[in-house]
Design a protein that fits this description.
251 residues, mainly alpha, two-stranded antiparallel sheet, globular, YhhQ, transmembrane, transmembrane helix, cell membrane, transmembrane transporter activity
Length: 251
């Protein structure tokens, strides 16, 4: 077995890398989530998606990997840290929307590339203040989804043991994202926005089925990540870390 000090270092480094991937993708998803794009125009398929949902599969795959090696506590710890960092980022963004724009900045950006009138301050305000409604909905949905994901994952783990990684990863994602996909849009665009309830249901439905398909398609990535992590830690230490995770005592 690798000496304890080396194992502790590798364990710390692994959690740091996984947390970094988790946090940066969650934050990016919040920022770009203000854009709704047409799946029909892009791929010829019906429906609309939020731009943030495109990278959200990275977050829930990382969630499952953290859960596998660091347990429910490890997932919730990084989830609460992420919420704090997202709130900080949006408080900074909100503060910048209150700053008076420089006149020369307005003047040199008063027309777009085609010569049409353009108000860059209005555009800035529109994009980032719209994000404040999304952040409220996202944080509520994110916390509910992460608690569900971590809980369902460990429940399935108790049933499957170390077998059927795909089942506990996919099963926990499908349950948690069913709730997350609706809650985030309902709070962000119905309670704080101007969408109809029918629009919320339509986009939530498309978002969920995208996440459903992504969870299935990303299964090989999950197994690849497990293979690389197991090689990095070594067989004995991998087993020890997974046993700690199953007991919810990791990190």
């Amino acid at each position: 077995m690798v000496p304890t000090s080396s194992f502790a270092h590798k364990k710390q480094q692994l959690y740091l890398v996984l947390s970094g991937i988790f946090i940066v993708n969650a934050l990016l998803a919040e920022i770009i989530g203000v854009k709704i794009f047409s799946v029909d125009a892009l791929l010829g398929l019906p429906g609309n998606l939020t731009a943030g949902v495109l990278i959200w599969p990275v977050v829930f795959v990382t969630t499952d990997i953290i859960n596998e090696y660091f347990g429910r506590k490890g997932v919730l710890r990084v989830s609460f840290l992420t919420v704090g960092l997202i709130l900080y980022a949006f408080l900074v963004i909100l503060a910048t929307t209150k700053l008076p724009p420089a006149q020369f900045w307005l003047d040199i950006n008063k027309v777009d590339a085609e010569g049409r009138p353009f108000n860059i301050e209005f555009a800035y305000q529109s994009i980032f203040r719209q994000g404040l409604g999304i952040i409220t909905g996202s944080i509520v949905a994110f916390l509910i989804g992460q608690v569900l994901d971590a809980t369902v994952f460990q429940a399935l783990r108790r049933i499957t043991g170390s077998r059927l990684i795909w089942l506990r990863a996919t099963g926990s994602t499908l349950v948690s994202q069913l709730v997350d996909s609706f809650v985030v849009l309902f709070v962000a665009f119905y309670l704080f926005g101007n969408w109809s309830f029918e629009q919320v249901l339509s986009v939530a439905n498309t978002n969920y089925w995208y996440k459903f398909a992504s969870a299935i398609l990303l299964t090989p990535v999950l197994y690849l990540a497990h293979y690389l992590i197991d090689r990095y830690l070594g067989q004995d230490d991998t087993v020890e870390l997974q046993q700690e995770a199953a007991a919810n005592v990791s990190v």
